Amino acid sequence: xxxxxxxxxxxxxxxxxxxxxxxxxxxxxxxxxxxxxxxxxxxxxxxxxxxxxxxxxxxxxxxxxxxxxxxxxxxxxxxxxxxxxxxxxxxxxxxxxxxxxxxxxxxxxxxxxxxxxxxxxxxxxxxxxxxxxxxxxxxxxxxxxxxxxxxxxxxxxxxxxxxxxxxxxxxxxxxxxxxxxxxxxxxxxxxxxxxxxxxxxxxxxxxxxxxxxxxxxxxxxxxxxxxxxxxxxxxxxxxxxxxxxxxxxxxxxxxxxxxxxxxxxxxxxxxxxxxxxxxxxxxxxxxxxxxxxxxxxxxxxxxxxxxxxxxxxxxxxxxxxxxxx
Length: 325
Ligand SMILES: Nc1ncnc2c1ncn2[C@@H]1O[C@H](COP(=O)(O)OP(=O)(O)OP(=O)(O)O)[C@@H](O)[C@H]1O
Ligand SMILES: [Mg+2]
Prior knowledge:
Blueprint: H1 13-38, H2 42-110, H3 114-135, E1 149-152, H4 153-167, E2 173-177, E3 184-187, H5 189-206, E4 213-222, H6 223-228, E5 235-236, H7 240-249, E6 252-260, H8 290-300, E7 304-310, E8 314-322
Parallel strand pairs: 2-4
Antiparallel strand pairs: 1-3, 4-6, 5-7, 6-8, 7-8
Helix pairs in contact: 1-2, 2-3, 2-4, 4-5, 5-8
């Protein structure tokens, strides 16, 4: 299921080239007409000349209009990429802020002196202020710089889940089970942790009113499994044609399943989840960028992010990454 996860504006250069070709064609015809006119009577020449003048004026107007449109599109494209960059920074800053706040909350519980509690108590308030400030810059998407290396996915997840453990609401139980296979993948462990944090935050929100458990599992799966198993997600972010090629070229994948037993998602919404700015949350609560950024990360790792859900029962996200052979 293809999702256009970034709101990038592209210049329709093919349209412009087509218009240019038409212009040249018209000029050629006009030139040929002029040659014909030179061989006609004075009266015919005057009428034809008038018609030609009008044609040239129309062409000039068209040319001006095209230049104006082209400049506008270039401007829009620049704005779009600056915006995407800002949105990336905003979203990625919000995750560490949540972690800082979580640590401060823990420190508050164990701080012994009143003075220390007073000092530490100020941290969440300041973090909230920063978070609100960042919300004001939220409107854009993500393009990142790659910093890829080989790493052990299970090890990375263990590390990441210890952070999730700190920031998760108390009522939620989290269990995990890692496969015995070593899952070596090529990528950026930091970006993969960002995906897990985004999934965790969504699961917390989905369990505000119902549900209380998160289950994280890793498995080694084959491309055949992905093509045939009913366990595979109902919708995914990757472009379908690209996904077919990936499945042909890679045989073994690492699968991370992140499940919650929260609200669940209506089937008709599954295809929209990976779109930038798609959110069902209140303004200020969700920007609709978490899954769009996460799917972007999965795809830049040559993988996929899939989802399956039963409304009222819960949701499972599946992060799929090609294994390094
Ligand atoms: N585990 C889940 N359970 C139920 N619904 C979910 C779950 N994860 C995502 N969603 C739905 O998908 C939408 C998009 O999620 P996404 O993470 O992209 O944005 P968000 O959480 O709304 O905002 P942001 O992550 O930018 O703060 C959510 O608003 C929610 O409706
Ligand atoms: Mg989210």
